[in-house]
Amino acid sequence: MTSASTAFPDARRLSRAAASPTPGKALLGNSFVHPFFDYMIIGGGLSLALIGGMVAFGWNSTEHLNRSLPMLYLLFNSAHFAASTVRLYTKRGSFEKLPFLTMGFPLVTVAVLVAALFFPGSLGYYINKVYLTWSPFHYAATAYGLALIYSYRSGCEVRPADKRLLRWSSLLPFFYALGLQELNGVEGWILTPEVLASNTQMQWLLMRLVRLLALLSFILPTYFLARPLLKRRRPWPLIVPLLLVSNGIWWIVFTGYTNAFNMATIFHGVQYLAIVAIFHVKERLREPGNQRGVLYHTIRFYLICLLLAVALFQFWPYAFVLAGFGKTESALLVIAVINIHHFIVDAYIWKLKSDPNYRNIAPAGAVAR
After folding, report:
1. 267 with 242: CB under 8 angstroms?
2. 354 burial type by CB count under 10 A (0-12 exposed, 13-18 middle, 19+ buried)
C-alpha cells in the first residue's frame, strides 16, 4: 500500500472537513466499519491476542506453526496477493488509466518468471532474495499508509514532521527484519553465514543493532499517544500506534526470521483483505442500479480472490513442472514473482484520485471544503 499523502492529494481538505468529536470519540477516530472491527482486524488487535496466546502456551516454535500454516496461507496470505489483482481488474477505469499495468506488465512478469526458471541458480536466486527483502518493506508501507488514512479520516492535522516520524516509525520493523535476515540463516545481501561465523565481533554488533531496532519499534509509536500533551493538538486515533506496534510485534515476537516472516505474512494478509474489500464494496454500493448489499459484495469479492489464489499458487507451478522445470524451483519462483507483482500493483491501485475514492476516506457526513 502506498502512502495516503500520495494516494489522496486532497486528504488535508477532507481532514479539515471532519466534525470536532468528543475526547473519547477522538481517541477512537472514525472507523470504516465499526471501532471493534477496525481495531481488531485492520489495526491488528486480534493478531496481538492470538500471538499472546501462542506465546503463553508455548506455540512459538516451527513445529507448532507448521501444522496450521498451509490452510492459513491459502485463506489469508494467498488470497491477499490475489486481492490486489482482483482490485486492479475490477476497479472502474483501470484499463484506461493503467494500460501497461493491466495488459503489458503481466506479460513482463511471466517472461521474467520463465527466465528465472531457466537460470534458477543466478537470476532465480536473486529474484527470491528481492521478494524476501521487499516483503517487510511492503508491510511497513502498508502500516504507514493505513495510519495516514485513519488520521486524515479522523480529522487530525498531519504536518510534515508528523509524517516523517510516522514513516520512520513504520520502517523500523523493516530494518529489524533486514538484520534478522542476516543473523538467522537466511542469507542477506551483505553478510553471509560464513562471514558472520568468522567474525564474532561483527555478529555481536549486528545483534545489538537488531535489539535496538526492536526496542525503538515500540518506543517511537508512543509519540502519537503523547501528541496532545506535547503539542496541545488534537490526538491521533489509537489505531495509529496500534498499526505500528502490531507490525513490529509480527516481526519481533517470533524467534527466527522464518517464523517471523510466516506470522507477519498471515496477519498482514488479514489486514489487507479487510481494507481492500472495504474500498471495493463501497464503490460497488455507489454504482447506479446496484441492488445488492454489503454482505453479498464482500463474500463475492473474497471468493473471487480465493479462487484466483488457488489457481496462482496451487495450479500455476504445475504448469511449469509439466513443461519440464523442477518442482521446487517452479513453486518457489512462482511465489516470489507473484509477491513482486503484488508489491508493484499495490503501489498503483492505492493512488486513488477521483472523487468517489475521497468519499471512502471522508467520515460519514463530512463535506469537503
Report:
1. no
2. exposed
Cell of 284: 460497488
C-alpha cell at 278: 472495504
Q: How far apart are CA 151 and CA 353, in angstroms?
A: 18
The C-alpha atoms of residue 89 and residue 87 are separated, in whole angstroms, by 6
Distance CA 260, CA 272 (A): 18
Cell of 11: 486528504
Let me know: does 151 contact 128? Beta carbons within 8 Å: no
Task: Look up the pTM and report it.
Answer: 0.83
Distances (CA, A) of 228 to 28, 101, 120, 212, 231: 14, 43, 54, 27, 5
Q: pLDDT by residue (tens digit) across 34-84?
A: 999 999 999 988 888 887 777 676 665 555 556 667 777 788 888 999 999
Cβ atoms of 312 and 110 closer than 8 Å = no
How many whole angstroms separate alpha carbon 236 and alpha carbon 151? Answer: 6
Q: In this structure, what C-alpha cell is assigned to residue 174?
A: 523493516
